[in-house]
Amino acid sequence: MIFKSIAPPVEIPTVDIPTYFLSAAKANGAKLDTKAFIDIGAQATLTYGQLDYMHNRIASGLVNDFGISKGDIVMIFATNCILYAPTYYGILAAGAVCCTASSAFNASELAYQLNDCKAKVVFTTKQQWLVISQAMDQGLVDIQPHNIIVYGESLPGYLYRSFRSVLSDKPYRRLSIKTKDEAASTPALIVYSSGTTGQPKGVVLSHLNMVSGSTSLNSLAAFLALKSGIKPGSAVQRYLVISPYAHIFGLATFLHNHVANAKTQYILPQYSIDAFLQAIARFKIQATTVVPSILTQIVKHPNLSKYDLSSLQYMACGAASVTKDTLEGVSRLLPASPSQGYGLTEVCGGFTLMSSYLPIAGSVGFHAPNCEVRFVDENGNELGADQEGELCVRGDRVMMGYLNLPEETARVIDGYGFFHTGDIGYINETGHIFITDRIKELIKYKGQQVSTAVKDAAVIGIDDPQRGTEVPMAYVVLDDIANRTDRGRAAMLCMEVQAFVAARVAGHKQLRGGVTTINAIPRNASGKILRRELKTRYLARTNAKL
Fold first, then answer.
1. DSSP strand pairing (201-206 vs 401-402)
2. Do 226 and 312 sit in the same domain of this protein?
3. Which of these, 371, 368, 380, 367, lies nearest to 428 by C-alpha position?
4. Where is the AMP-dependent synthetase/ligase domain (predicted)?
5. Which of 131, 200, 285, 345 lies in disulfide reach of 192, CB 3.0 to 4.6 Å?
6. pLDDT tens digits, residue range 124-151?
7. Residues 156 and 286 in one domain
8. What angle do CA 163, 48, 273 make, to 5 degrees?
9. Domain boundary residue among 158, 176, 194?
10. By residue range, what is the domain housing residue 266?
């Protein structure tokens, strides 16, 4: 059975991303001097007028001085800052495709993504430049220094270009999209997402994908607010940003939705729970978006009462599941109860919302209009309400495909246009969606995906109550009987594996749950790893309950 949204369909504009979101900001009250971004650490501000002016200068420079043409790929490898948004919109206005890279990447991880997407130009910070430089020194990438643009002034002896060098007032041919076919066939973004195989995959998203994703989610939010009796005048204005713009969660929420709604974003440059709470109190923050680990830190904070959090009206939580106890704990402590949602990179981020309208514990809410869902069993048979199966999604928000991976794209998008999420759940009679399990071979640490295709091993996610998130744990099969039977040797090898991984991957991919040995990795007849068995084994060993 195919389920439509409880919200009515909405008309999707057939325009490019910069035109849609920047025009929407003006329509929603953004003036030239309205503050768009405030960097709390650098004490720098960017207004909506400056965003409009600067993104055009960046687009002009890319076209006229860097030779960027329609369809070329330009990467942003940077932490959140006030220059991220004008860079992003400038890349798209130039007709190029923006590829975001996690600022937590080390040299080898960055090199993989650079070589896979073949970016012609990279925007970065001085801190991330050191990672690029290391990748270049090791011969991992062949990008030229003069195609690397570093925010700030250039330094003597360095060959990269300063940010000032890309700013131009020359005329250029701005990207213009007029039809739905153009919007659907013109790529805008490449955001990398781990999946069931070893290396991350580039998710290619079109202008139609992202405009549809934002329009439909905003429409759902407005519909639920109306049903909940919330008046339009009660909308919040000041948002605290801690989610990385490079992640689909942060990009779709802040660079798209909150820009379109003319909000003011306060950027917290480096997260700590006390810096987060202090920022809310100091700047009278009205709303923020978090991941579950932050909610856990709030509940366990020993001095929460010393912060004035009375201004907080709204808190959204995404990127991973939240326990009932954590939600109830936060609701008791804060004036704003966390609102959950669900989404994936392949469907432009969040596409469900839970609000005060018909709230149900454990549900991720209702799905957006212009978006159909269905649930299927392991044989592909369609299921009805309250029947558990794999969640599949269809609509204009479903990705164009995986970069350079047509077979993998065909595997996850079926002949009817449904994207198979790899997540298990069900929908009830009122339209509430529940996510109950994950069949994809990946876990999430603090909202970031971790690939689990480790050679001669299997990785599972285990709950870490202290961090309030899943952490990676590896089961390894040692290569000979002597190693398996000598406990001291086995323990040493496990520590070596953990150290080996830690030295080569970003922090969220490290095996924080430890490494343990197993005689054989359980698999089904087709060779797929049976991670539920491994998790059951772990829980039994720790005397935990399913």
1. antiparallel
2. yes
3. 367
4. 29-403
5. 200
6. 999 999 999 999 988 899 888 899 999 9
7. no
8. 80
9. 176
10. 205-438
Say if residue 407 is in the same domain as residue 448: no
- Whichever domain contains 274, its CATH number is 3.40.50.12780
Q: Please give the Cα distance from 206 to 188 (Å, whole number).
A: 5
Question: Containing H/E element for 490?
Answer: helix 487-502
CATH number of the domain enclosing 55: 3.40.50.980
Adjacent-strand bridge partners of 365: 433
DSSP state of 369: T
194: in domain:
no
Pairing of strands 73-77, 97-101: parallel
Determine the pLDDT at residue 521. 79
400: helix, strand or coil? coil
Q: Which residues have C-beta within 8 Å of that of residue 362, sequence separation ≥ 6?
A: 324, 434
Closest CA relative to residue 444, chosen from 509, 532, 353: 509
496 vs 476: CA distance, rounded Å: 12
Please, what is the average pLDDT of the chain? Answer: 86
User: Which H or E run includes 224?
Assistant: helix 207-228
Same domain, 416 and 468: no
Tokens representing 53 are 């002016």
Rounded Cα distance, 407 and 289, in Å: 35
- The total of structural domains in the chain comes to 3
CA distance 306 to 121: 46
Residue 350 within a domain: yes
Element (H, E) at 533: helix 531-541
Which two three-digit tokens encode residue 72? Answer: 């070329």
Domain C-terminal end among 139, 160, 176: 176
Are residue 367 and residue 415 in the same domain, yes or no?
yes
Distance between CA atoms of 41 and 120, rounded to whole angstroms?
31
| CA–CA separation, 50 and 44 (whole Å) | 12
- pLDDT tens digits, one per residue of 379-393: 889 999 999 999 999
Asked if residue 446 has pLDDT above 60, the reply is no
Q: Does residue 424 sit within a domain? A: yes
Tens of pLDDT along 21-78?
A: 999 999 999 999 999 999 998 889 999 999 999 999 999 999 999 999 999 999 999 9
Query: Please, which residues bridge with residue 473 across strands?
Result: 460
